[in-house]
Amino acid sequence: MKLKNRHLLGLEGVSKEDIGLILDTGQSFKEVLERPIKKVPPLQGKTIVNLFFESSTRTRISFELAERRLSADVVSFATAGSSVSKGETLKDTARNIEAMKIDMVVIRHSSPGAAHFLSRVVEANVINAGDGAHEHPTQALLDMMTLKAKYGSLEGVRVCIVGDILHSRVARSNIYGLITMGAKVSVCGPATLIPRGIEKLGVQVSHSLEDVIPHVDVLNVLRIQVERQQSGFFPSLREYHRYFGVTKEKVSKAAKPITIMHPGPINRDVELSADLADSEHSVILEQVTNGVAVRMAVLYLLGAA
Amino acid sequence: MKQTKVIDTVGFRRTVDRLAHEVVEKNKGAEDIVVVGIRTRGDYLAHRIARKIEEIEGKAVKVGRLDITLYRDDLRGRLDQPQLKSTEILFDIAGRVLVLVDDVLFTGRTIRSALNALMDLGRPATIQLLVLVDRGHRELPIKADFVGKNVPTSQKQEIKVSMSEADGEDAVYLIEKDD
Question: What's the CATH code, domain A16-134+290-303?
Fold first, then answer.
């Protein structure tokens, strides 16, 4: 039982067996998180650096908790106040970290491909925690783990990803992972926010939430970046909410209750209505719990070997 | 490959019954006893021991299963990582008499891992070790409190425990490995 790759850079091209192994291992780690002492020893003596070149709260806390619960030594670094603000290149930063004998690197960066680049210049295992609009594999893994726990298997589960698909690494990683695992994936959003040719990845495209709702089990609602409005991708938040905001009223048209997911942080009553976010069909907090477990699984599978 | 049966189906049942009686005798009853088996065959054995103790004493005995993968000392350097499974101990072990169960006692390293794992879950009053087969060759100072059968072996031999839950029959075999 071992992953084929020694880095986790994205879910594109990752096999069904490997994703299955990560999800099953994550499920086992969930039990550790419910113990009074939430610490186990497999990464004892390993040093992990969290390189966050882009702000993040939950992903960073989630990774740090996962690392500490596996008994690794953890160093975290944010761009502000570091040598990056003094003009150091990513390569030099990486080389310097390497010189300090680090075993694993978790990187978040605004440039797509930053994690791939790093994996070529350092010896350590590299985990992508989000690179631009490219991929965010651990988010997709925690989404899949949550769905697998709910539906037993991902085979045939109908998932629609709603919102800004164009700028979303969460959408891309979810599409690759879910399709590999046999789920039926669709995307829904304004035409300006759906990349052209995305059908080639094997997803259905729709521009009407009302059309989609009767045919899905799950809505994974993406955060809408308010600054996209200034760039002219949609006219106003009010209009976005009217057409693509997921509300109790709209989902009531479905035959069976629809599971609501959101990667956070939520703009309440913009992309998702507050009552729905807090409803019994929302698994948003479950996603957060599973995030720690699935990151422990990835760190363990890459680092303990 | 030559194999010899060292415990047959009837012998297996008698051994389990005797071990359960020994546990009750040593602890003067089943009060405070909880049984924890090491996955996979230790877990099956733990359930059988617990059921037998219940039969003898007429009261319920709690059973848990322990996965020791995260505590192994050979995790690094193995080409093949063992599949991690869940520990399922749904009760408080603090202050209890914990009977730790495994099928075969060999180097003692599995038991060392299990002890560390248990310490992270709580502080039992005592831990007693029960094994079906002790085959010798200890590498750590560990000794079982209850032994089903001592089977002297050489390093070239192997012990195979079959249990109906996984293997269709209850038996123990001594296997000669070809070199």
Answer: 3.40.50.1370
The CATH number corresponding to B2-70+87-176 among 1.10.530.10, 3.40.50.2020, 3.30.420.40, 3.20.20.70 equals 3.40.50.2020
Q: Single out the residue of A111, A166, A108 nearest to residue A139, CA to CA.
A: A108
Tell me whether A36 touches chain B (CB under 8 Å): yes
Q: Does domain A137-287 have CATH number 3.50.50.60?
A: no
Q: Does B28 touch chain A (CB under 8 A)?
A: no
> What is the reported pLDDT for A160?
98
Residue of A51, A45, A55, A11 whose CA lies nearest to A201? A11
The rounded distance, in Å, linking the Cα atoms of B70 and A127 is 21
A65: which 2 tokens? 């908790």
pLDDT tens string A204-232:
999 999 999 999 999 999 999 877 778 88
Question: Chain B residue closest to A4 (CA)?
Answer: B80
Asked if A35's CB is within 8 angstroms of B121's CB, the reply is yes
Give the residue range(s) of CATH 3.40.50.1370 domains in chain A.
16-134+290-303, 137-287
> Which DSSP symbol is given to B83?
P
Reply yes or no on whether the pLDDT at A81 is more than 60. Answer: no
Whole-complex ipTM: 0.78
Contacts of B70 in chain A (CB under 8 A): 32, 40-42, 300
**B84, B90, B119, best to mutate vs chain A, most A CBs in 10 Å:** B84
Size of interface A-B (CB pairs under 8 A): 49
> What pTM did the predictor assign?
0.89
Q: What is the DSSP string of B34-51?
A: EEEEETTHHHHHHHHHHH
Q: What confidence tens digit (pLDDT) does each residue in A270-280 have?
A: 999 999 999 99
Q: Would you list the domain boundaries of chain B?
A: 2-70+87-176
What CA–CA distance (Å, rounded) separates A161 from A172?
10
What Å distances lie between residue A115 and A118, A126, A299, B111, CA to CA? Answer: 5, 7, 16, 41
DSSP A176-212: HHHHHTT-EEEEES-GGGS-TTGGGGT-EEES-HHHH
DSSP state of A31: H
Bridge partner list, B131 = B102, B147
> Could you count the other beta carbons within 10 Å of the beta carbon of residue A282?
19
Tell me which H or E stretch contains B24: helix B9-26
